[in-house]
Design brief:
By secondary structure, this protein is mainly β. The strands form 2 sheets. A 3-stranded antiparallel β-sheet has the order 4-1-5, with no helix packed on it. The longest helix has 4 residues. The protein is elongated. The mean pLDDT is 89.
Length: 58
């Protein structure tokens, strides 16, 4: 899964620097550090291109 590192540190033996860029990390490693369990990692914001467009009927 892609995550944003908020707190620099070793995650599963690999050093990750804090920053705003997305990094790839195994789900098993990332989940304990994501909310609601921890706050060291964050999920990246949803991109507009990822969301399907919904058209209203007139």
């Amino acid at each position: 899964m892609k995550v944003i590192v908020k707190v620099s540190g070793f995650y599963a033996g690999t050093w990750h620097e804090a920053g705003s860029r997305e990094v790839e990390m195994a789900d098993r490693v990332a989940k304990p550090f994501l909310p609601p369990y921890g706050d060291q990692l964050a999920r990246p914001p949803e991109k507009a291109a990822d969301k399907p467009s919904v058209k209203k009927a007139v």
